[in-house]
Amino acid sequence: MCRQDEFMPMSTRHVSDRRGFTLVELLVVIAIIAVLAAILFPVFAKAREKGRQAACISNQRQIAVSILSWAQDHDEMLPGEDVWADLDLPPKLLRCPTAANLANGYAYNRRVADKPLGGLKNEYTTFLTADGKSADNLAFLPRNLAERHTGKLVAAFADGHAALCAAGELFASLALLNKLLFYSDRDGNNEVYVMNPDGSVQNRLTNNAATDIPYAWNADGSKILFSTNRDGNWEVYVMNADGSNQTRLTNNSAADYPASWSPDGSKILFRSNRDGNWEVYVMNADGSGQTNLTNNPAVDYPGAWSPDGAQILFQSERDGNDEVYLMNADGSNQTRLTNDAAADIPGAWSQDGGSILFRTNRDGNWEIYRMSADGSGQANLTNRAGNDFPTLWSPDGSKILFYSDRDGNNEAYLMNADGTAQTNLTNNGAEDVPRAWSPDGTKILFYSDRDGSVEVYVMNADGSEQTRLTTSSALNYPISWR
To answer: Which of 39, 53, 325, 377 is the most buried (most CB within 10 A)?
Structure first.
């Protein structure tokens, strides 16, 4: 008997033997495709970003050439803060490919504005422009820059080259002093000194029989603000960073004490009792235009400038006790931020200008509080037995440096910006008081009497490698790190 399939057409004879992919096979294929996509897509994305980086480097190199050409036409002086208007560059050149939504994605280095090219210490490490995020397209601090290229940024330098780098490294390598400012009575009276961060080359800047106390560097590190009684009463002085050209800015029979420079270095905040009580004053950097900002019968002490220089914190007893106040830089709109029966003392602004630190004894002991710039959201950050005093935010704004006697003596502490992870950094029986961060936020400057006299020390931000920098057996107090 013949089989049925012997009489079936050839075209249909083996149809029943055909089959598609099984579900397992399909899943395997899909999995392989997914793995390949996971491998290749980041490669493609990196390749695209490399292309954008190359375009950004090209843009900023051309901008740097334009800036240097402008300087050659203006007696070797770099442009001022109106650089973008002065250069009148093509709009396409100002667009960073990674931030194409920004009409101008770059920031000009305010520290070199109106400076002579020949005055730069190192053209190779001094940046002119970089990827920016400030509204005015100017950069003074790392927070003004945008690390938008795989965690880094593109910058153009004063020698004409452009490269990929980190914001912190960019400012750390900037042609600044990298010096520590301190004062010491090692020569019989308090004088102003500077030294290298490793303690070497300790130079005396002032040299007279009076008392000289340093307060702060100016914005670009070229000048130092200090107070002295060399004229018979306390006056505000300024000098060059090398100690030259010591100039008296205030000149009256009252006591005048400097507080701080404005962020752009154009103004100086100080206090004076020339009108019969302590008031907050401001003057131009050359001493002209001295103006009483607070002008009332109570005691007023200057606090800190806001990061943008538009507002000033101050402390006042005008309502019967010390409270934190805020005013515009011209003295207008004086507003009380704290309101309780305790003493509230203003501290530092956060880098973004959104928060303010202050200390208060409203809970019975001194605690560190944080509030919004309008006075709302006042919160106790430390909330421990003992007394806590704020020092400074870290350069990146993520940490707060403070000191506390909660363990029986003053020690240097560090905590997160929200008050968590409070850590004793020094932890010994001596007095340890932090004073300043290194510009890159990796080290902390402090003083200690652990060796029998007050000396200047430095340590890593985690408290390790605590190193004594001064060894004079005199009193040595650090002020700041520039």
So the answer is: 325
